[in-house]
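User: I'm writing a tutorial on reading structure tokens. Could you give me a worked example: one chain, its sequence, then its tokens, then a sentence or two explaining what the tokens reveal?
Assistant: Sure. Here is the example chain.
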Amino acid sequence: MKGLMMDTPLLISSIAEYAVRFHKDREIVSVTADNPRHRCTIADVISRSKKVANALARLGAGHGDRVATLAWNDYRHLEIYYGVSGAGHVCHTINPRLFAEQQVFIINHAEDRFIFVDAMFMPLIEAIADKIPNVEGFIVLTDEAHMPETKLDNVMCYETLLDAETDDFAWPEFDERTASALCYTSGTTGDPKGVLYDHRSTLLHAYACLAPDVMGLSSKDVVLPVVPLFHVNAWGVPYSAMMTGAKLVLPGPKMGDGEALYELMDSESVTLALGVPTVWLGLLQYTEKAGKRLDKLRMSIVGGAAVPRAMIEAFRDKHDVELRQGWGMTEMSPVGCVNSLKAGLEDLSPDDKLDLATKAGRGLFGCEMRIVDDEGKGLPWDGQAYGALQVRGPWVCSDYFKLEGSAETHTRDGWFDTGDVATIDPQGYMAITDRTKDVIKSGGEWISSIELENTAMDHPAVAQAAVIGVAHPKWTERPLLVVVKAEGQDISKEDLLAYYDGKVASWWIPTDVAFVDELPHTATGKVKKIELRKQFADYRLPD
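And here are its predicted structure tokens:
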């Protein structure tokens, strides 16, 4: 027997309608190339998103057509989010940090019909335009006064396009499993793979992120997503913030500038910020140098890479800010778990709380986790056993776009293999110990590169650290620590290796240290270990 409840589809347009009805005057602040501090309201954004929908209809975009963006975090990008998906098209966000070859691949693979592009990214488009012949038009996200010169024929001005339209648009109703957005993985081990989100998965993910033990968003919050809108739907923030009426502060091209971020956060009274560790490292370095304090920030959520213990401690002790580590993947929309202190653990010592905070956290309701051995057998949640981490849930991908049935990442019983190696303790806190491909196997035993990296990052003289396996005649491979020194700091390799004493097993301690000016990063800000391995392919460890 079925229940007698209304079958109302979960659609992104319903967020738009709700936000206008209950939070229409809530402010959205943006930094753009043509305006250092643009201000508008939720009502303005949704009105203009309807104009976007009307413009696309006039241009001939049909249901399910892919419409791409190549843009920073600002109000125009937000308008496109709602205008494209709400009208039944698929919003394909392109990472401008990808290599040109990767951009060409994903634009052609997605079969994008139109691309909304920030003016400063027009050189990227011009460089590849002849290789993406199926794109029918490029819409530059600016007004006529700031339109860049270009030799391309099929270029339109965003503001002119919208000026020709009205906001008289009725959001269509369709199946909630209709595709809403498309995001490609960074493609570090082959061609990027497309993850195709639907309206249902997007709304359920946004709901889950609102929970107090996750983001804890409310209408009283001021939210700064430093995580880009071009990366995994900005971790769901554009939807969660609109659901609650939180004020949005969008940093535009200033996302990696510590000083600019501090000024924006301070002047707009930001209470919640989200981004990757490198961003917060830059912010901490700026506040330390300038003698500033993050007085208004209550919480920062960090994902994309492991968070060093020292960073959590610095936010807590110097700024009275709770730093919550999160974990997820493009294939997971992306949030899988967030680290918040569980009831019953309040009496832990400050040091024990810090140790706990370095873990990835507990799984959200809606995202199941398990760890398995090489045979696929489930392992206990005892904090000791480690194995391949697998997940499943309503916002986890079931396959990749145009690769249906060929993915090797999904098990026969319906779990997604993340490629991470992890432990889960009896309280449900998961800790990533390594990527499957990054584990260092020395003398038949596994060494966690992540734990070695985090330990090095706790040293005040270390700005960034990465650990890779290097060939060794006796042990097959041994860990090499690659370090970027902190500004104004100096340390010898001997002192740095001695820092590991008592913190990890003696046989885990790296055999050598290499100091570099910078580490290679992927387009999503993660250390690109495949490039490090190439760089140090001929490296000889000391005898």
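What the tokens reveal: The mean pLDDT is 93. The CA atoms of residues 367 and 393 lie 5 Å apart.
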